[in-house]
Specification:
The protein is an all-alpha fold and about 300 residues long. Helix 5 crosses helix 7 (about 145-165) and helix 6 (about 120-140) packs antiparallel against helix 12 (about 265-295). The chain has 12 helices and no strands. The two termini are about 35 Å apart.
Length: about 300
């Protein structure tokens, strides 16, 4: 029981750290593309040192590398859009919009597999759309940030579905490592094409500290810790705790940025619908599956 409780605590701490990613995105002064470039560089470098220290074999064949490298482009775009959403609006808006990941996954996953869309997922999708509509209606000044946040969720949904298949054949940390390399290379190529290597990339002392925290602690360390405890916990509990990420981020943003993060009642109404739907989704889904299993066992 103590071991399980410690794993739950570590997962909560990991999700809290993931939520802190959004805070760092708001604090770092370079633009979202440069920010993401630095983040993935620091993250895959620290993961490489981790593999070497633990003597972990992280080699993959050519076909696997190409798949992960290409997926890395989507990961990089996701983070650019996510940090762009924060800079174009607020942490709260970006995090709530990112929560639409559940909606996109419910819609897109059947297209990538033989899975059919359930009535529960249709209801979840409808409620999330309702919540996003309310936010759009009351937070018109953040329209660009909202669009970027939703687009970020769309990208996250695509690479999450792809990774769900990849993780069956190799370690999640290895997948992350090569996707980070892919993200770094694709962003580097984009910066080269757009003459993005300018003085705007120069970092302040505070930026360097924040980026090291973001790249090492919030990306590499948090991800490794998260994967380790997820193996010991049920999928239901993991889903429930992971869904707290936007809640942690919004509370942190209100505490750190104060009035800059205070929104209209319409925003909080829409956000409440989205977050409640996402939080309750695994609970309802688990109960329905248990009921279905019980009927099959006792017709």
């Amino acid at each position: 029981m103590k071991f399980k409780l410690s794993n739950v605590f570590i997962l909560h701490l990991t999700v809290f750290v993931w939520g802190f990613t959004a805070i760092l995105g708001a604090l770092i002064t370079v633009n979202e593309t440069h920010l993401t470039w630095y983040r993935v560089l620091i993250a895959f470098s620290s993961l490489y040192l981790w593999f070497k220290y633990k003597k972990i074999n992280f080699s993959v064949n050519k076909e696997q590398f190409i798949k992960l490298f290409l997926t890395g482009g989507i990961v990089g775009l996701h983070w650019i859009l996510f940090f762009g959403a924060i800079k174009a609006s607020t942490v709260s808006v970006a995090m709530v919009c990112l929560s639409s990941l559940t909606l996109f996954t419910a819609v897109l996953e059947p297209l990538f597999s033989s899975k059919s869309v359930s009535k529960l997922e249709i209801l979840v999708g409808f409620l999330i759309i309702l919540g996003i509509y309310m936010i759009f209606k009351f937070e018109t000044e953040y329209e660009t940030g909202i669009i970027m946040g939703i687009s970020s969720a769309f990208c996250a949904s695509i690479f999450s579905i792809i990774n769900a298949k990849q993780v069956k054949n190799r370690a999640a940390t290895v997948i992350t490592y090569y996707e980070l390399i892919g993200a770094f290379c694709w962003i580097s190529f984009y910066l080269l094409l757009t003459n993005g290597y300018t003085e705007a990339m120069i970092l302040s002392k505070s930026d360097i500290i924040y980026l090291l925290i973001l790249g090492v602690i919030c990306t590499s360390v948090a991800y490794v810790a998260g994967v380790m405890v997820m193996k010991e916990l049920s999928a239901f509990r993991v889903a429930l705790i992971t869904n707290l990420e936007p809640v942690y981020a919004i509370i942190l943003a209100l505490f750190i940025f104060g009035k800059d993060e205070q929104m209209t009642s319409g925003f909080y109404g829409g956000a409440s619908i989205i977050l409640a739907t996402i939080f309750l989704y695994p609970i309802v889904k688990t109960r329905l599956e248990k009921r279905k299993l019980s009927k099959n066992l006792h017709p």
